[in-house]
Design goal:
The chain is 36% helix and 22% strand. It is an alpha/beta fold. It folds into two domains: 196 residues, Peroxisomal Thiolase, Chain A, domain 1; 152 residues, Stage V sporulation protein AD (Peroxisomal Thiolase, Chain A, domain 1), CATH 3.40.47.40. About 4% of the residues have low confidence.
Length: 362
């Protein structure tokens, strides 16, 4: 295999660039520690829609439109679109992105969907099947409550181990190094040149995707769907251990190891699992579910979750740290709990998955 590494990893011989990204969030997220970094904060969480599900579709539409605007690209210049969300049949993505007219591959990795999309998008470019792709994902607190738990009107009580589904969407545009070089050398269209002159930001990459480790489904027999952090922690630990083995690296190779949405409970479980393997990550581990909210000031219990959690945090904060040189390399580990209302009501356990993406400064 040209790019294959170890049992489940891929090292790209030519990194794939994240040329632009955008994040759109709800009011609660805008009030959190990262509020000033998001591209847009909604004035209300309906985002001009009549239903919560339509609101989530609007989030995806706005996120992709903003990312394309930043990159000075038109939809027809994107070869493939990788998109997914938490709702049945991925209706947030299908209704939200239909008007862009881009060939679409729908994904479902629960809250790990961002990592899955970035992995498949980078692989597609590295394999020579596309010059540019888009990766989009979202979640909405109210639509997720209806999909997985109870309608908001029910007023059910949430245990302290429960997390708060992030209302937000993020879009990422990926491009191969040769395509970026062609645009930089002046081989873009006349219209693109006008946009470049007007905006002056084309060609400035946010980060490089240098490789990935594909996760496997892990099931530790946990049945508590209100404690998804504990359900997902084993998957995060398993993927990290296999990644380090495949790549022949130690944790010190990364400025930060960033999990998706383990939250307060899952973070402690993850760190404990890694200590049992002889690794103390307490000084170099961050969790998006802990970063996006102020757990002491905002009533979110264990922290943030949902497809949008790690996606908007990656776009607004993590990539910013890389592009501004504060970090040189991070390992992005989005996690997902693979359950449904049907499986939960049938008494099934909550399997989980985690994918790893190696991101470096541009």
């Amino acid at each position: 295999m040209k790019h294959g590494l170890g049992k489940a990893s891929i090292r790209l011989t030519e990194p794939v660039s994240v040329i632009a990204s955008a994040s759109i969030v709800g009011t609660k997220e805008g009030q959190g520690p990262l509020g000033a970094l998001f591209d847009k904060v909604g004035k209300e969480d309906h985002f001009g829609a009549a239903t919560w599900e339509e609101a989530e579709s609007n989030l995806q539409r706005e996120a992709l439109a903003e990312a394309l605007k930043k990159a000075q690209l038109r939809p027809e210049e994107i070869r493939f679109l990788f998109a997914g969300d938490l709702l049945g049949q991925s209706i947030a993505s299908s209704f939200g992105l239909v008007d862009f007219g881009i060939a679409t591959l729908g994904l479902y990795g629960a809250c790990s969907t961002c990592g899955e999309a970035l992995t498949l998008g980078a692989m597609t470019i590295a394999g020579g099947f596309a010059e540019r792709v888009a990766c989009v994902t979202s979640s909405h607190f109210a639509s997720a409550e209806r999909e997985f738990r109870f309608p908001l009107e029910y007023g059910n009580q949430r245990p302290l181990s429960a997390s708060w589904t992030v209302t937000g969407a993020a879009a990422f545009l990926l491009q191969g190094s040769r395509s970026g070089q062609a645009r930089a050398e002046g081989k873009a269209s006349a219209d693109e040149h006008v946009l470049m002159e007007e905006n002056g930001s084309a060609g400035k990459n946010r980060a490089k995707i240098c490789g990935m480790t594909v996760g496997r489904i892990m099931d530790f027999g946990i049945k508590d769907s209100m404690n998804m952090g504990a359900c997902m922690a084993p998957a995060a630990a398993d993927t990290l251990l296999r990644h380090l083995e495949d790549w022949g690296r130690g944790p010190e190779a990364y400025d930060q190891i960033v999990t998706g949405d383990l939250g307060r409970v899952g973070k402690e479980a993850f760190l404990d699992l890694m200590r049992r393997k002889g690794m103390d990550l307490s000084e170099r581990h961050l969790d998006c579910g802990m970063l996006i909210y102020d757990l002491e000031r905002q009533d979110v219990h264990a922290g943030g979750s949902g497809c949008g959690c790690c996606a908007v945090t990656l776009s607004a904060y993590l990539l910013k740290q890389l592009e501004e040189g504060f970090w040189k390399r991070i390992l992005f580990l989005p996690t997902g709990a693979l359950l449904s209302k049907t499986s939960y009501n049938e008494g099934k356990t909550v399997p989980a998955i985690c994918h790893a993406v190696v991101l470096e400064a541009p």
